[in-house]
Amino acid sequence: MNPAFKNSVSSESKTINQLGAEKDSIVVQAIRVRSGKALVNYSYMLINRRTSEAVVIDPAWEISKIRAVLKARNCKLTAILLTHHHRDHTDLASELASETGALVYMSSMEIDTYSFTAKNLSEIRDSHVVSAGMRINVIETPGHTAGSVCFSVGGYLFTGDTLFIEGCGICKGKGASADQLFESLRLIQSTFPGSTQIFPGHRFREAPGKSLDYVKANNIYMKVNSRSDFKTLHMRKRDISSIEYL
C-alpha cells in the first residue's frame, strides 16, 4: 500500500444510523438485497450531496431498490465498484452500466484470475484512486478471492467479503488463500484508524457501520496474531449452511 495514502486516512466526525452514514457531503446508503429465501447481501450507494453524483458498491439481486435510491436522492450513477467477482456482489453490474453509462471497476487480478467480464469494465490496482464525484481509494485485500479489494472513502471502509463485523470471508476455491486473508486483515488493522466505519457485504448480527475499534474488540479473527493459529481457526470444519443472514 502507498504510504502516502495510509498517512492520509483521517478519523473525522460522522453521524451513524442503521441504514448508513453521513459525513461532510458524502452520504452512505445501505441497501439490503435478497436472492431467494436465504442469501442476503448489502449493496452500498455513496452520494455526493453537493454534486448529486453517486457510486454503487457490489450491486446485486434487486435492481428496483437501487433505482429507487437514485430517484429518491435525484442523483446520477457515475461508477460501479466491485469488491470481487462472486455473483452475489456483481449480479447487476452490467445492467446498471447499460442503463447509466457508468464505468465498472474491478481489480485486474480478479478479472484475470476468473476471466470476469462486464459492460464498461475498467481495471484497478492497489492504491488506485477512482474519481467519480468523490475520491475512492483502492486497497488490495486478497484471501477470500485472489483479487479481492476494499474501497475507502474518507472515514468509511467497504470490505466486501474480506471482513465482516462478526467474522471474515471463507477461503474456498480457485485463488482463495487463508494466508493472504490473514495478511489482509492485519493490513486493515494497521492502516486505518479505529474510528473508521466498516461496511461489509453481509450482516449476521450487528448492523453495518460499526467502528473498526468495535470490530477489533468483537471479531475473533481480528484478535489472532499468529498466521498458523488463524489458519487453524479459519479452516476448521463448520456447517456454513446453518448461517443466517440478516
Task: Set down the secondary structure blueprint.
Layout: H1 3-8, E1 15-17, E2 20-23, E3 26-35, E4 39-48, E5 53-57, H2 63-73, E6 76-81, H3 87-90, H4 93-100, E7 103-107, H5 108-114, E8 121-124, E9 129-131, E10 135-140, E11 149-153, E12 156-160, H6 178-191, E13 197-200, E14 210-211, H7 212-218, H8 227-234
Parallel strand pairs: 5-6, 6-7, 7-8, 12-13
Antiparallel strand pairs: 1-2, 2-3, 3-4, 4-5, 9-10, 10-11, 11-12, 13-14
Protein model, in words:
This protein is α/β, with parallel strands linked by helices. 26% of the residues lie in helices and 29% in strands. The chain has a single domain (18-237), classed as 4-Layer Sandwich (Metallo-beta-lactamase, Chain A), CATH 3.60.15. The protein is built from eight helices and 14 strands. The strands form two sheets. It has an eight-stranded mixed sheet. The protein has a six-stranded mixed sheet with strand order 9-10-11-12-13-14. Helix 6 packs across helix 8 (227-234). The longest helix is centred in the last third of the chain and has 14 residues, at 178-191. It is globular, with a radius of gyration of 17 Å. The protein starts with a helix and ends in a 12-residue tail after the last helix.
